[in-house]
Each structure stands twice: as structure tokens, then as C-alpha cells.
Amino acid sequence: MDLDASQHSNTRSGTTLEESRPALSWQGQITAFANLVWETYKKKPISYWIQLFLSSSAMLTAFPASSLLSRLYFADGGKSKWIISWTAVAGWPLTALFLIPVYFFGKVSPTPLTLKLLLWYIVLGFLSAADNLMFAWAYAYLPASTASLLASTSLVFSALFGYFIVKNQLNLSSINAIVLITIGAVIIALDSSSDRFPGISKTQYNLGFLWDILGSALHGLIFALSELVFMKLLGRRSFHVVLEQQVMVSFFGFVFTTIGLVINNDFNGMRLEASSFKHGGGSYSMVIIWATITFQLGILGSVAILFLSSTVLAGVLNAVRVPLTSIAAVILFHDPMSSFKIISLILTVWGFGSYIVGHSSSSSSKAP
């Protein structure tokens, strides 16, 4: 009662307690933030934070590693776009293995597979196979740093397709992100002559640029259609349901990509590729195997992040892995890093940040 009276008195005099409270110094703000972090930490058991750390680490290391291995395959003598796109889905049994303990120890049952859901999985699997093939063309002709920056435009297409297909909201932060990331891609296009590798023609570079953008657009469409499947057919986003969806889409993507490999006779060509690979057949096998494993680890990490935390954190980590991939490519492959590409990188990360802040704010406003 005394507090209410004091607040009422302050309001009549034209001020409130919030207005009269002195602004915190930067040391005070750091202390307040540290206290908030500590309180948040105490709300969850230590096992939760270990899982979140492992999932985040998997996403931040596996996806960049998969991208770098794709570029290494082509840099060291690999030629087949079908083979490197096949590695993105060949590891689907690794993801499927994680469903076994979930079913047994999580006391959940597999989601009933209706004909309509099966057809959706087949469509998404086909689109996923086409998407992986497009990105394979991009990594064949573009530096890994450039390819990863262009691939970040998938956020733009996810937002646009989400708006038209799923009726997601497009707020000012989302529009700002779309504009910034688009400008970043345009800057790379204008500076294309500075990061073209020797032996790569201008036509090949432009082709890689085009396939990267088209692959990003298709990735955004797949994301929106996957969300539509959850809304219309699945209706829930538990860990095992998201994992089932990933396994089924990857499986059908594997089927379609394998058919492409057989038709293109690339399975038989693997032995010839291995013999002419820069560091020999053993190195060739390691690149293929680890490209397969790292991509699946990245998928598992992203699914776990969505289950343990939120799409916002997944977006943050997705934004962080863009500069990580670019920096690693500069260090390992000596990718050219012009001032234009640095500006594009800054705009891309800024765009991701704008989208995440806007998405977080809208989610908070919807919370009860």
C-alpha cells in the first residue's frame, strides 16, 4: 500500500519511480546482464546446458566443415556435382539412428505415415536433391567464402515464401534484413572479378553465382513448405517429429540423387576420380566420408537447437556460421577477401541480426 501511495505521489508531481531512477553506468549494466545470465542458467539443469552447448557446437562446426569439404573436393580434383550433392543426403541413416533411443527411452511412437504425408515427403525429397545439386555447382566454381555469403540469401527467400505460403508476418526488421542481405549479394556480383580462381572462366563463375542464388531460393521454398506440412499435417514440433521429417526428406533426397548418379554413371567414375585426386585415393575417401558425416551432424545440431531453445537461437547460430565459413576459407584455401566482400559480410551479418531481433520481438509480443 505504501508503495502504491508513493507511486501515486510521484505521478502527481509529474515523475515516476522509473523516470526518477538514475541510469545505470556501463559497469552496472554489465553486472545486471551477468545477474540475468546467472538467473537464466539456474532455471535449467546442467544436463540441459550441456546438450545446448553440444548442439550449438555441432551446428557451428559441422555446417562450415561440410561447406569447406565440398570446396576441397573440387579444388583437389573432384569433378562430379552429383557425387558432392550425394554426400549431403547419403548420411541419412546416421540421423535415423537417433530415433531409436528416442522411441525406446522417450516413450513416444512413430508418427503415422499417411498417403498425403508420404507424398509431401517425396516432393520435399525431390526438391532437396535439386537444391543440393545447385549448391554443388556453386561450390565447383566459387570460393567457399563467396558461396557461403550468397547462400545466406536463403533467409530472404524463406521470409518471402513464408509470407506468401504460410502467411507469416513481414515486419520492418524482416524487410530491413531482406534489403541488407540483397545489397550484400549485389556487392559480390559487382566485385566478381576480384575472387575468381585461376582456371575458372567468367562464364563458369557466373554460372556458379546463378546456381547459388537459385539454390538459396529453393532452400527458402523448402523451408516454407516444411513449415506448411507441420501446420497442416503434423500439428506439433516435438524433437522426434522434426527428426522424422528430416530423415524422410533426406531418404527420398538420397533416392533421387542416387538415381541421378546411376544415370550419369558417376558411381563408376568415383574410382577414376580417386586415382587422380591430389593427395591420392585415401584423401578422396576421407573427403567424401567426412562431408557426409559433417552435414548430418549439422542437421542433428539444428534440430536439437529448435527443440531445446528456439528458432531465434537457430537463426543466431546460422548468422554466426556465415563469417566462420568465410574466415576459415580465407585461412585454409587462401580465398581472396576484398573490401567489397568484407562489406558484404558485414551487411549479411547485420541483416541476420535485424531479422533475429525483429523475430524475437514479435514472438515476445505474442507470448501471454
Automatic annotation (TrEMBL):
<dbReference type="InterPro" id="IPR037185">
    <property type="entry name" value="EmrE-like"/>
</dbReference>
<dbReference type="InterPro" id="IPR030182">
    <property type="entry name" value="PUP_plant"/>
</dbReference>
<dbReference type="GO" id="GO:0016020">
    <property type="term" value="C:membrane"/>
</dbReference>
<comment type="similarity">
    <text>Belongs to the purine permeases (TC 2.A.7.14) family.</text>
</comment>
<dbReference type="GO" id="GO:0005345">
    <property type="term" value="F:purine nucleobase transmembrane transporter activity"/>
</dbReference>
<feature type="transmembrane region" description="Helical">
    <location>
        <begin position="340"/>
        <end position="358"/>
    </location>
</feature>
<protein>
    <recommendedName>
        <fullName>Probable purine permease</fullName>
    </recommendedName>
</protein>
<keyword id="KW-1133">Transmembrane helix</keyword>
<feature type="transmembrane region" description="Helical">
    <location>
        <begin position="46"/>
        <end position="63"/>
    </location>
</feature>
<dbReference type="GO" id="GO:0015211">
    <property type="term" value="F:purine nucleoside transmembrane transporter activity"/>
</dbReference>
<feature type="region of interest" description="Disordered">
    <location>
        <begin position="1"/>
        <end position="20"/>
    </location>
</feature>
<feature type="transmembrane region" description="Helical">
    <location>
        <begin position="118"/>
        <end position="140"/>
    </location>
</feature>
<dbReference type="Pfam" id="PF16913">
    <property type="entry name" value="PUNUT"/>
</dbReference>
<feature type="transmembrane region" description="Helical">
    <location>
        <begin position="146"/>
        <end position="166"/>
    </location>
</feature>
<feature type="transmembrane region" description="Helical">
    <location>
        <begin position="83"/>
        <end position="106"/>
    </location>
</feature>
<feature type="transmembrane region" description="Helical">
    <location>
        <begin position="210"/>
        <end position="230"/>
    </location>
</feature>
<feature type="transmembrane region" description="Helical">
    <location>
        <begin position="173"/>
        <end position="190"/>
    </location>
</feature>
<feature type="transmembrane region" description="Helical">
    <location>
        <begin position="315"/>
        <end position="334"/>
    </location>
</feature>
<feature type="compositionally biased region" description="Polar residues">
    <location>
        <begin position="1"/>
        <end position="17"/>
    </location>
</feature>
<keyword id="KW-0472">Membrane</keyword>
<feature type="transmembrane region" description="Helical">
    <location>
        <begin position="283"/>
        <end position="308"/>
    </location>
</feature>
<keyword id="KW-0812">Transmembrane</keyword>
<feature type="transmembrane region" description="Helical">
    <location>
        <begin position="242"/>
        <end position="263"/>
    </location>
</feature>
<keyword id="KW-0813">Transport</keyword>
